[in-house]
Specification:
It is built from twelve helices and five strands. It has helices at 4-17, 28-46, 51-75, 81-85, 87-95, 98-119, 130-217, 221-252, 255-260, 262-277, 294-315, 351-366, and strands spanning 280-286, 319-326, 330-337, 370-375, 381-388.
């Protein structure tokens, strides 16, 4: 029979092993001691541990099982299952190996009955014989302990998997926040540089143009023919430089994006892209026109710029179509071309192409959008960006 002190210890021993708590009302000091002990033991058993630690624990569990078996055979000592025979199982539980747990349980139960079979006198066996009943109860107790440890290990494995999943999701959310903040800072820097170009360089070029025109008008007739050509060349250079500065400002921070929204800036950029590259580019609008948040509009516009830059560099396309489809909550931006296409499963079709796709993925993740690429060699490429504002 299992001693009474063992049975009385089970309600406090098992919960301690499995990180559970019993609260005895009216004894706060005892409750506090039990909670502190439970926390320490649960931390020791639930931590993932290093590989070396688990190897040591497995070796200790196997060595303990062997030592207990030899001791039981050699001395015929009636071992206390709750405090001694169950120790290898507890060590196996710390390794989180359920297969090791049940192998050791089987070995210990086999040892329990084998030692009894060796030590019992011939003809003395009976089902109600005290030593046999005690061994049978010990085996049941081992099975109970192994079953509880098995449930605990499954629960711990599930908790670890959930913790890893939560950690991964938190890392993704943190990366998205960082990317979003980087985009906001980048757009603020672009806006600041564009403002400086307008306020400093643009105004000074305008002043130079005015001065040159005044100087040209005040030239005497005998110098007008000789110096007038030089002044005309200078005025032309100033005008071209002013146009270049305006183009740079538009690339940095298109004023039409802030003033009129995503559709207007995409239409403007499609015209600019057609003039610059010769690829016939047009915008198709589907659904009601509506404004998005400034961050989302800027990110979508930059992704369209990146996609069209890839068209100019790699696609060898004749036409490109930018489609902006909107409804009450979803905005879908598609950039499609009729170029040579590529295999999306390839790691990086080209180094700069790979960088462009990576930047677009980061921008999409920063605003919570989904980026999809549909392409095949010889069948063109479609970049699809879907932003669900309700997600």
């Amino acid at each position: 029979m299992i001693p009474r002190r063992v049975l009385s210890s089970i309600p406090y021993t098992f919960p301690t092993l499995f990180g559970l708590e019993f609260i005895e009302h009216g004894n706060p000091r005892l409750d506090r001691r039990r909670r502190n002990g439970n926390t320490a033991i649960h931390s020791a058993f639930s931590g993932p541990g290093s590989g070396n630690t688990r190897i040591v624990l497995r070796a200790a569990a196997l060595a303990g099982t062997l030592a207990l078996a030899v001791t039981d055979f050699a001395t015929w000592i009636e071992l206390d299952v709750a405090t001694i025979f169950g120790l290898p199982l507890v060590l196996a539980g710390a390794t989180r190996s359920r297969s090791l747990l049940w192998v050791l349980t089987a070995c210990l139960i086999a040892t329990t009955f084998a030692a009894y079979a060796v030590q019992i006198r011939p003809g003395a066996f009976a089902l109600d014989e005290p030593f046999f009943v005690n061994r049978l109860l010990n085996a049941v107790s081992l099975l109970l302990l192994a079953g509880l440890l098995h449930v605990w290990m499954r629960s711990a494995a599930t908790n670890d998997a959930q913790a890893r999943l939560i950690s991964e999701q938190n890392d993704k959310l943190q990366a998205a926040r960082v990317s979003r903040r980087m985009i906001e800072v980048q757009e603020a820097e672009r806006r600041e540089v564009a403002n400086h170009l307008h306020d400093l360089v643009g105004q000074k070029l305008t002043a130079i143009s005015i001065n040159l025109n005044i100087l040209k008008g005040e030239l005497p007739p005998d110098l007008a023919t000789r110096i007038g050509l030089r002044l005309d060349d200078s005025l032309k250079l100033v005008e071209e430089t002013t146009e270049s500065i305006r183009d740079v400002m538009a690339e940095l921070r298109p004023a039409v994006l802030d003033d009129f929204g995503l559709a207007a800036v995409l239409r403007w950029y499609a015209d600019q892209f057609t003039q610059r590259t010769g690829v016939a580019t047009s915008l198709v609008e589907l659904g009601p026109a509506r404004r998005l948040s400034p961050t989302a509009e800027h990110a979508l516009f930059r992704m369209a710029q990146n996609a069209l830059a890839n068209v100019a560099k790699h696609a060898r396309a004749d036409t490109a179509i930018v489609t902006l489809r909107t409804d009450s909550r979803v905005t879908c931006l598609t950039i499609a071309d009729d170029g040579q296409g590529f295999d999306p499963a390839a790691a990086q079709p080209a180094m700069d192409h790979g960088w462009g796709l990576m930047i677009m993925r980061e921008r999409a993740a920063a605003i919570g959008a989904k980026l999809g690429i549909e392409s095949a060699p010889g069948h063109g490429t479609s970049v699809v960006i879907t932003l669900d504002e309700a997600a």
